[in-house]
Amino acid sequence: SQQGEEDPQALSIQEGENATMNCSYKTSINNLQWYRQNSGRGLVHLILIRSNEREKHSGRLRVTLDTSKKSSSLLITASRAADTASYFCATGKAAGNKLTFGGGTRVLVKP
Amino acid sequence: GAVVSQHPSWVICKSGTSVKIECRSLDFQATTMFWYRQFPKQSLMLMATSNEGSKATYEQGVEKDKFLINHASLTLSTLTVTSAHPEDSSFYICSAREGTLRSNEKLFFGSGTQLSVL
Lengths: 111, 118
Prior knowledge:
heterodimer, A: mainly beta, five-stranded antiparallel beta sheet, B: mainly beta, seven-stranded mixed beta sheet, four-stranded antiparallel beta sheet, 11 strands, 0% helix, 52% strand, globular
């Protein structure tokens, strides 16, 4: 099974609401990253959190990491229609190592 | 930010033909590039790690003779799907890590190639 598994698989919200998605993983990691993918396009890096960090912010994004529970969450505050995309978590077991992607959460933000 | 260019964006080919996909890092050097395959509404499946000047490292279950990878320079990696069949139809995406610094953990992705084999 995949290293990272996300829930929910799909999320539909109104513009202005917050969107929260979670990622769980099985083995120890060096870092966890979140990426965004618009339909039929490549992925764009959003944020990276290292195993010794617990929370990071970037604009309207907030990421938490709980290594004891092997889980992470991505919060998008005050969502916009342009946030509609699929969001993937990816884990790296060691610095410079390959990343393993989770199943993704498809987010639909309705205007 | 770093830009990765992937071409073509889409390709339609007949069964039995070979298709080459290019992945270029435009403004940085990438000693390592990664090739993924993605089915509709699913996650990315890593196919292989492409290392400049050496053989690619393939993931378990990926046929190296079917998916030929060449990383001849620090800015170009190619994936050739040989003797393509309809089951090879998929979205292929490349990514690159900038330089060799261990601190450069994030990946930069190409825009993907939709391959349809008739």
